[in-house]
Each structure stands twice: as structure tokens, then as C-alpha cells.
Amino acid sequence: MDHPLFGPPLRDWREEGAISRRAKISAVLLMSLALIYLWVAFEPPAIALLVVTGIMFTCGAFIVSRPEPPNKP
Question: Is 26 domain-assigned?
Fold first, then answer.
């Protein structure tokens, strides 16, 4: 919790269940890129692509629905 880089987001999550806007954008963007990569590089069957898309959409919705941490001085 005292780590200079990882401590503040971990404290925000533990205390408030909050995720910063920057982390939300990064997570959703990277999940989208991973889905595109899966689709283009591996050409999975349609059902597999739908399942993975559903899982990523659900995870992304959860991430986006979390509150943002309060501004701290």
C-alpha cells in the first residue's frame, strides 16, 4: 500500500471501490485491442468470438460503473 506507483490506486479500490478515469480508459482500450487482435490474428469460430466479446463487455461495464476516487489535496 506504500508503493509510490501502485499504492494510491490500491488504496482507492480498498477504501472506496473506486477506479480512476485514466485506469478505466486504459482498461477498456486494452480489452478492445485484445479483442481485435483475437479476431484478426486467430480468426476464432463465431461462437468463441461471441463468448469472449460477452465476457469482455461484462468486465468493461463493471469497470466503467465503478465510482471515481475523490479528489485529494
Answer: yes
Q: What is the pLDDT of residues 4-62, one digit of tens each?
A: 999 999 999 999 999 999 999 999 999 999 999 999 999 999 999 999 999 999 999 99
Query: Which of these, 72, 58, 66, 61, lies nearest to 16 by C-alpha position?
Result: 66
pTM of the model: 0.87
Determine the pLDDT at residue 68.
96
Q: Domain range holding 57? A: 19-65
Is 12 inside a domain boundary?
no
In a domain, 38, yes or no: yes
Q: Classify residue 43 as left (phi > 0), alpha (psi -120 to 50) or beta.
A: left
DSSP class of 70: P
